[in-house]
Amino acid sequence: MKNVLKSLILLLTAAVLVLSSTGCSSGSKGDNGAVTITWWLGGDQPEDFDEALKVMNDYTAEKIGVKLDLKLASSGDYSEKVNMVINSGEYFDMMWTDVTNYKKYAQMGAFADITDKVKTVSEQLYNFIPQNLWDGVLVDGKIYSVPTYKDSSATFYVCWDKALIDKYGIDYKNVDTIEEVSDWMYKINKDTGKNVWTCSGYSRGASNWFYKDYSTLVSGLGYVIGVGMFDESLKVVPVLEQETPMNALKIYHQWYKDGIINQDAPTLSSMPSKTNILCAQGFPGAESIWAGTLGCKETVITPICDPFYDTGTIQGSLNAISSGSKYADKCLKYLELLNTDTYLRNMMAYGIRGKDWEYVEGDSGTVTKLSDNWTLPAFYQATFFNMSPLDTDPANKYDLIKGMNEQAKSSVVCGFALDKTNIETQIANCRAIYDKYWTELACGASDPEKIVPQMYDEMYQVGLQDIIDETQKQVNKFGGK
Questions:
Q1: Are 249 and 362 found together in one domain?
Q2: Which residues of 256-266 are buried (b: 16+ CB within 10 A; e: fewer)?
Q3: Any idea what the CATH number is for the domain that residue 82 is in?
Q4: 121: burial class by Cβ within 10 Å (0-12, 13-18, 19+)?
Q5: Is residue 11 part of a domain?
Q6: 123-126 long-range contacts, Cβ below 8 Å, gap at least 24?
Q7: Is 303 left (phi over 0), alpha (psi -120 to 50) or beta?
Q8: In terms of DSSP bridges, do strands 94-97 and 35-42 run parallel, antiparallel, or are they unpaired?
Q9: pLDDT at residue 201 in the model
Q10: Closest by Cα among 53, 108, 91 to 326
Q11: Are residues 397 and 465 in the same domain?
């Protein structure tokens, strides 16, 4: 009898241990019945990570019965880490991804098809995100991720040090072409005798003036090939040989020869702390950010194009659910809450209320930071448009960005990403040639009328025509031709 009793006790003890360990594992239910889902994000672990995650988990467990097991990999290591996770078959429920690997992982079966489920399980989430974005994440006609609704469209701006505007009386609101900017730069250079436009390698290079004109089709080839952003013919062209890009490259080359651009631009690995003017992708309200970039007290900006959507602008931040997840519905409910609940969104973006951030007194819609402990990049996580702005930003910052999105027009190839399977070798060979020439072209150090034809000649010898033909075939299929 004693042996039987002893055996029963051992069995009961083992059962308790199994149940308790199961309750703590990822993709499982805890003691309170809340499901724990594993989510991979990019970023370094914040100082108060465990404490903040507990606060968020307590909140979401009560709201929707979901807790997070948040897995982090530093931004520099993230791609390699998640590639290992996927290829090894390691369990996960959700994963941040972007245009670089999204289509590849979706087509290899790593991500779940949520085309129908996102509309029924998370109807509020589906209706909140504009249709343009859902169209922009389609892979073979199906949805495999939730796009992060933020500055999802692109607009390019000329940004000026306001001190220059005041000193020279520049009518900056009507200076929105590279030729008009060039006229003023020569005047300023003649007066000061100094570089006016600063480049570091290809950073702030000529491509910012024509990025708006061509979709580069997620080809992995920089600006070698593309389709006109709104060209209904869908013709794949060698981008740098086209009129607008060549004109920008020629102007930069003239600037470089005339001392407008710093002469060490091709060799600099980081940008000098002080510059006067830049052309870059941005959004309304970016003036406060760019003041720090230019190293000046105040900046003013002028758009050089209307806002537009393209594959790269929409797929810059996506969250996908694993095809092997046991809790796909719960993942969608979590993303729905994160994208619609301001308090949860603020916690994920800023950390613990009362420790890392607090609402500004008398203004529950604005946040002031109390510490720098919480360092996770907000753009990985969820929408900007239910997140309270910081008191250091314009109060209407996110309203302005949302307004920009609402005005945006989709490119003719929005959602297209080149399948490189049949042309990987040719792409690698052409990319090596492009990298050999691009930095000096972009910052004006090379003569584009000489180097661009030379570069393309070399690429045609190693398979560029194969790339163009395959790309054209895929683009035609995408466009229903």
A1: no
A2: beeebbbeebb
A3: 3.40.190.10
A4: middle
A5: no
A6: 124/336, 124/340, 125/332, 125/335, 125/336, 125/339, 125/340
A7: beta
A8: parallel
A9: 75
A10: 91
A11: no
Cα atoms found within 13 Å of the Cα of residue 8, Cβ hemisphere only: 5
Q: How far is CA 354 from the centre of its chain?
A: 30
Q: Tell me: the pLDDT tens digits for 25-76?
A: 445 555 568 999 999 999 999 999 999 999 999 999 999 999 999 999 998 8
Would you say 413 and 216 are in contact if contact means Cβ atoms under 8 Å apart?
no
Look at residue 47 and tell me if it is in a domain: yes
* Chosen domain end from 407, 425, 448: 407
User: Which residues pair with residue 112 across a beta bridge?
Assistant: none
Yes or no: say if 117 and 327 are a contact pair by the CB < 8 Å rule.
Answer: no
- Same domain? For 165 and 288 the reply is yes
- Which residue range(s) make up the domain with 298? 155-311+413-478
Residue 139 contacts residue 349 (beta carbons within 8 Å): no
Residues across the chain: 481
- pTM of the entire predicted model: 0.87
Of the residues 364, 385, 407, the one at which a domain ends: 407
Q: How many CA atoms lie within 13 A of 20 on its CB side?
A: 6
Q: Residue 12 domain-assigned?
A: no
Structural domains of the chain, count: 2
